[in-house]
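User:
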Amino acid sequence: MPFWFWNDALDDRELVRQIEGFQRHGVEGFVIHPRVGLPRSIGWMSDAMIGFMHTAIEEAAQRGMKVILYDEGMYPSGSSSGQVVAANPGFACRGLCRIDLQPGQTISLPNDHNFVTRVSNESGQQFAIIDRPIRSTIRGLHYIDGGPAEDAPPMADILNPDAVTLFIQLVHEKYARHFGQHFGKTVMGIFTDEPNTLGKVGERNVWPGTRNILDHVNRILGEDFTANLPALFDDTLPDANHHRQRYRWAIRRRLEETWYKPLSDWCRSRGLWLMGHPDKGD
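Assistant: Predicted structure:
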């Protein structure tokens, strides 16, 4: 089941010709994978894109071939090519960050920044840990002014279950409306690609986070992790590597709750497989 890159102007007759070529060479299925290079007239989940998918899926159905749908334009998955953040800017990717403080200094935060805790390291340096929107993107579908630069849509907060619900509505539910009659037959599953809690992050010293993430980390670990948060930002602290591994482990478990399980449940209830590339091995 190869990735079939759609990365140039599309044509119904050419799609059918290539599908015939797949089958003639013993390739009985494909993953429709929109990629950078598409003209802007074929936007992510646009009527034009859905129309070409109709052509490919109907042709595959007539030939007894199999199709896997791809859930993003391009990757990492989670933003619906920026549509999640466009619909709700509060769903932009977030992270934990450190702000150095002077003794007794107070801080004033913008409305979209949340105070997590104030701590001191062993040398007495005080700092605050906050969660805030971070500079994070995904790879886009279109070249800018002919390339080589690409669009970079904003990454969404896939640790936020409400953001993931919107993602499913924008992608999976639209697939169901157009191709549901082929689910579990021609359409085998939906491919999710390297969902990453930080996306393609454009700043340093940021850790995965979201609103109230410490509550979920504490619940998952069965302990109060607050006192260990400085280790995320200072690798000279005792057991820093251990604490970082524990935090990463908790984030992966939270991602199972907010991303993999909702997608898996949605697919299973419709006779599909959830398929794809995890961000990392476990």
